[in-house]
Amino acid sequence: MSTGRLAGRTALITGASRGIGAAVARAFVAEGARVALAHEPTAAMAELAEQLADELRAGGGQAVALAGDLAEPTGPAEVVAKAREALGPLNILVANAAASGRSPYQDISVAQWDLVQAVNTRGTWLLAKAVRDDLIATRGCIINLTSVMVRTGQPWAVHYTASKAAILGMTRALARELGPHYVRVNAVMPGAIRTENEVELEADPAVVAAEILPLQSIPRRGLAEDLAGAFVFLASDEAAFITGQVINADGGWVMY
User: Fold this and answer.
1) Which of 56, 58, 164, 209 has the lowest tally of Cβ within 10 angstroms?
2) What is the pLDDT of residues 198-216, one digit of tens each?
3) Best CA proximity match to 97, nearest among 43, 33, 20
4) Helices 123-130 and 75-87 meet at what angle, rounded to 10?
5) How far is CA 229 from each of CA 25, 70, 72, 233, rounded to the nearest angstrom?
């Protein structure tokens, strides 16, 4: 049930076409926020983002879909500028978009490494840089996405894990720098979440479940919707005295 916790606020959510980003967008709109749905500049992601924007508007919300290439140095600032032009000054940044891949570390190419770092690490920093003035003016917040892989040290994704560890450190450093301006910076650390990206990597849910469920305290798969409440909380006034923190949403996998 909506309580209007984000009424009057404007959020930019990257990677919002599907998965966690889309679930957060739905939850934010349900709580009264206007949302800019930033998506990868491909036809497939544009179609999904436009469909989500239509869905949110049909339910009475305010939403726009915006293309942006976070791998390009100018991409993050361009997305922020588009969101501001469409919806006004921003109160909330959700840096959710990420590049990934699965490969033994010795087989990762320099180009693959650089792409993951450009989107995940540099992109998160540049988004925070571009939205700084808005957040200071509105006393807003940033919510970054890290990963349980930072804690578990899983193999086959060294480039991705390194980028998510960097985001964890960046979250804390930004919280220190922006705290004097009453801007909060926190992170959400998802566990194994059954999203479209996972389906593309492994179509059979039973295969992943057999590997993941014994590691969790709660014996069911996590869904994108399971994370949305953490984002709403961190974006709301209920978290007004919380910054530099990480919320694990992993079904009780990692407990430290």
Assistant:
1) 58
2) 888 778 999 999 999 999 9
3) 20
4) 40
5) 11, 26, 31, 6
How far apart, in whole angstroms, are the C-alpha atoms of residue 42 and residue 82? 17
Average pLDDT (163-190) is 98
Identified catalytic residue from 105, 160, 182, 256: 160
**Tokens at 70, concatenated:** 């976070």
Please say whether the beta carbons of 170 and 195 come within 8 A: no
Structure tokens at 65: 């879909």
- 47: tokens are 């179609």
CA Rg, the chain, in Å? Answer: 17
Single pTM value for the model: 0.97
160 noted as active-site residue? yes
DSSP-derived letter for residue 213 is G
Query: Which tokens hold the place of 38?
Result: 């930033």
Domains of the chain: 10-195+225-237 (3.40.50.720)
